[in-house]
Amino acid sequence: MTYTAFSGFSHVASGGLAEVYRASQAVPGALIFDEETGRVVDIDPRFPPTEDAARPGRPKLGVVAREVTLLPRHWDWLATQPGGASVALRKLVEEARRDPKSKIKAARDSLYRFSVAVVGNAPGYEEAMRALYAGQQEDFIAHIEGWPQDIRAKLEEMANAAF
Fold it and tell me: Of 33, 35, 46, 101, whose CB count within 10 A is highest?
Protein backbone atom coordinates (compact mmCIF):
# COMPACT_ATOMS: atom_id res chain seq x y z
CA MET A 1 0.00 0.00 0.00
CA THR A 2 1.09 3.55 -0.67
CA TYR A 3 0.54 6.50 1.58
CA THR A 4 0.96 10.25 1.09
CA ALA A 5 1.32 13.02 3.64
CA PHE A 6 0.34 16.65 3.10
CA SER A 7 0.65 19.66 5.35
CA GLY A 8 -1.76 22.25 4.07
CA PHE A 9 -1.10 22.34 0.32
CA SER A 10 2.46 21.01 0.57
CA HIS A 11 3.44 17.43 -0.18
CA VAL A 12 5.49 16.00 2.69
CA ALA A 13 6.20 12.40 1.65
CA SER A 14 4.90 9.34 -0.18
CA GLY A 15 5.68 5.65 0.27
CA GLY A 16 5.14 3.02 2.93
CA LEU A 17 3.22 3.94 6.07
CA ALA A 18 6.23 3.80 8.43
CA GLU A 19 8.32 5.93 6.07
CA VAL A 20 5.59 8.56 5.57
CA TYR A 21 4.83 8.65 9.29
CA ARG A 22 8.50 9.30 10.13
CA ALA A 23 8.74 12.05 7.51
CA SER A 24 5.58 13.78 8.71
CA GLN A 25 6.18 13.64 12.48
CA ALA A 26 7.96 16.99 12.65
CA VAL A 27 5.63 18.73 10.17
CA PRO A 28 2.83 20.69 11.83
CA GLY A 29 -0.66 19.79 10.65
CA ALA A 30 0.47 16.92 8.44
CA LEU A 31 -2.23 14.48 7.36
CA ILE A 32 -1.44 11.00 6.07
CA PHE A 33 -3.69 9.58 3.35
CA ASP A 34 -4.15 6.03 2.15
CA GLU A 35 -3.80 6.48 -1.62
CA GLU A 36 -6.02 3.49 -2.40
CA THR A 37 -9.01 4.81 -0.47
CA GLY A 38 -8.26 8.53 -0.15
CA ARG A 39 -9.02 8.32 3.56
CA VAL A 40 -7.01 10.01 6.30
CA VAL A 41 -5.00 7.49 8.32
CA ASP A 42 -5.16 7.96 12.09
CA ILE A 43 -2.04 6.79 13.87
CA ASP A 44 -1.71 6.48 17.62
CA PRO A 45 1.75 7.94 18.35
CA ARG A 46 2.15 5.45 21.21
CA PHE A 47 2.20 2.67 18.60
CA PRO A 48 3.90 4.10 15.50
CA PRO A 49 3.93 1.96 12.36
CA THR A 50 7.05 -0.06 11.66
CA GLU A 51 8.42 -1.59 8.50
CA ASP A 52 6.70 -4.89 7.79
CA ALA A 53 9.19 -7.62 8.47
CA ALA A 54 8.82 -11.09 7.04
CA ARG A 55 7.17 -13.31 9.61
CA PRO A 56 7.79 -17.03 9.78
CA GLY A 57 4.89 -19.43 9.84
CA ARG A 58 1.46 -19.29 8.32
CA PRO A 59 0.18 -15.78 7.52
CA LYS A 60 -3.06 -14.55 9.04
CA LEU A 61 -5.85 -14.46 6.49
CA GLY A 62 -7.82 -11.69 8.14
CA VAL A 63 -11.12 -13.55 7.81
CA VAL A 64 -14.00 -11.73 9.49
CA ALA A 65 -17.32 -13.40 10.26
CA ARG A 66 -20.39 -11.23 9.60
CA GLU A 67 -24.05 -11.85 9.00
CA VAL A 68 -25.40 -12.06 5.45
CA THR A 69 -29.12 -12.05 4.74
CA LEU A 70 -30.20 -13.84 1.56
CA LEU A 71 -33.37 -15.31 0.18
CA PRO A 72 -33.81 -19.11 0.40
CA ARG A 73 -33.16 -19.52 -3.33
CA HIS A 74 -29.80 -17.73 -2.89
CA TRP A 75 -28.81 -20.06 -0.05
CA ASP A 76 -29.89 -23.05 -2.16
CA TRP A 77 -27.67 -21.93 -5.04
CA LEU A 78 -24.72 -21.22 -2.73
CA ALA A 79 -25.04 -24.68 -1.18
CA THR A 80 -24.48 -26.29 -4.59
CA GLN A 81 -21.25 -24.38 -5.27
CA PRO A 82 -17.84 -26.05 -4.89
CA GLY A 83 -16.34 -25.10 -1.55
CA GLY A 84 -19.63 -23.94 -0.11
CA ALA A 85 -21.17 -20.52 0.45
CA SER A 86 -18.07 -18.74 1.77
CA VAL A 87 -15.88 -19.73 -1.17
CA ALA A 88 -18.61 -18.86 -3.69
CA LEU A 89 -19.21 -15.44 -2.11
CA ARG A 90 -15.47 -14.66 -2.01
CA LYS A 91 -15.19 -15.57 -5.70
CA LEU A 92 -18.16 -13.37 -6.59
CA VAL A 93 -16.72 -10.43 -4.66
CA GLU A 94 -13.28 -10.82 -6.26
CA GLU A 95 -14.84 -11.03 -9.71
CA ALA A 96 -16.82 -7.85 -9.08
CA ARG A 97 -13.69 -6.07 -7.79
CA ARG A 98 -11.90 -6.86 -11.07
CA ASP A 99 -14.69 -5.24 -13.08
CA PRO A 100 -13.27 -2.09 -14.75
CA LYS A 101 -16.36 -0.05 -13.83
CA SER A 102 -15.90 -0.97 -10.18
CA LYS A 103 -12.22 0.04 -10.29
CA ILE A 104 -13.05 3.39 -11.88
CA LYS A 105 -15.73 4.09 -9.27
CA ALA A 106 -13.34 3.20 -6.44
CA ALA A 107 -10.64 5.46 -7.93
CA ARG A 108 -13.12 8.35 -8.24
CA ASP A 109 -14.33 7.87 -4.67
CA SER A 110 -10.72 7.84 -3.45
CA LEU A 111 -9.90 11.02 -5.34
CA TYR A 112 -13.07 12.64 -3.98
CA ARG A 113 -12.26 11.77 -0.34
CA PHE A 114 -8.70 13.10 -0.71
CA SER A 115 -10.00 16.29 -2.36
CA VAL A 116 -12.56 16.97 0.37
CA ALA A 117 -9.84 16.83 3.01
CA VAL A 118 -7.26 19.02 1.28
CA VAL A 119 -9.11 21.43 -1.03
CA GLY A 120 -12.79 21.07 -0.19
CA ASN A 121 -13.41 24.82 -0.36
CA ALA A 122 -11.08 25.72 -3.26
CA PRO A 123 -12.39 27.71 -6.20
CA GLY A 124 -13.83 25.36 -8.81
CA TYR A 125 -14.03 22.46 -6.34
CA GLU A 126 -17.69 21.60 -6.96
CA GLU A 127 -17.25 21.88 -10.72
CA ALA A 128 -14.16 19.64 -10.57
CA MET A 129 -16.06 16.98 -8.60
CA ARG A 130 -18.97 17.10 -11.04
CA ALA A 131 -16.52 16.63 -13.93
CA LEU A 132 -14.84 13.77 -12.04
CA TYR A 133 -18.07 11.81 -11.61
CA ALA A 134 -19.26 12.67 -15.13
CA GLY A 135 -16.06 11.12 -16.51
CA GLN A 136 -14.93 14.40 -18.08
CA GLN A 137 -11.17 14.33 -17.54
CA GLU A 138 -10.36 17.48 -19.53
CA ASP A 139 -12.92 19.50 -17.59
CA PHE A 140 -11.64 18.07 -14.30
CA ILE A 141 -8.06 19.09 -15.15
CA ALA A 142 -9.24 22.55 -16.23
CA HIS A 143 -11.08 23.12 -12.92
CA ILE A 144 -8.05 22.20 -10.78
CA GLU A 145 -5.59 24.24 -12.88
CA GLY A 146 -5.45 27.12 -10.38
CA TRP A 147 -4.93 24.91 -7.33
CA PRO A 148 -1.55 24.63 -5.56
CA GLN A 149 1.05 22.66 -7.55
CA ASP A 150 1.57 19.80 -5.05
CA ILE A 151 -2.16 19.20 -4.71
CA ARG A 152 -2.75 19.43 -8.45
CA ALA A 153 0.08 16.98 -9.17
CA LYS A 154 -1.30 14.40 -6.72
CA LEU A 155 -4.85 14.80 -8.05
CA GLU A 156 -3.67 14.41 -11.65
CA GLU A 157 -1.76 11.26 -10.64
CA MET A 158 -4.81 9.84 -8.86
CA ALA A 159 -7.04 10.83 -11.79
CA ASN A 160 -5.22 8.43 -14.11
CA ALA A 161 -7.15 5.53 -12.60
CA ALA A 162 -10.40 7.51 -12.32
CA PHE A 163 -10.91 8.18 -16.03
Answer: 33
